[in-house]
Amino acid sequence: MTGMRRGEVLGLRWADIDLEAARLSVRNAVVTVSYAILEASPKSHQARVVDLDPETVALLREHRARQQAERDLWGSDYRDGDLVVAKENGEPLHPQSFSQAFDRIVAKADLRRIRLHDLRHTHATIAIKAGVPVKVISERLGHESPAFTLRQYAHVVPGMQAEAAVQVAELVGSAQALDR
Question: pTM value?
């Protein structure tokens, strides 16, 4: 529901989330070098703010409660990095493990196989089809510019041309009717 990259999700800290304001700040990302987990800045090298919908906020609250229960069970052995997505003991989750877990969930749900990154593309495509301004989509995704977003998702726009033509014609027709 955010369009975040895998590494950004894994680098997200609770301190980066304001559940009351329903928004999060993408400030960190987890990357791997020779399979070692490292923290880095987001791909665009700039922090960004992403607003959240009420259902996502509710799910984050539930997740935080479950994570607190895990923290309590582990006690002093819990490795508290304030990570939203972590192993049961608080350790960072390896990006490859995260992708593999996603693949298992998709297979278990008997869904058509998609990659984790496809969720990001789906978010952008749905937003474009919903009429969200491209500048807003670009900001949510952390793209360098709206032009980059349009280049990446140009395949979505042609199908929207017919709908736009009908909408413009309806507006012009209703304006002409008012002039009469």
Answer: 0.85
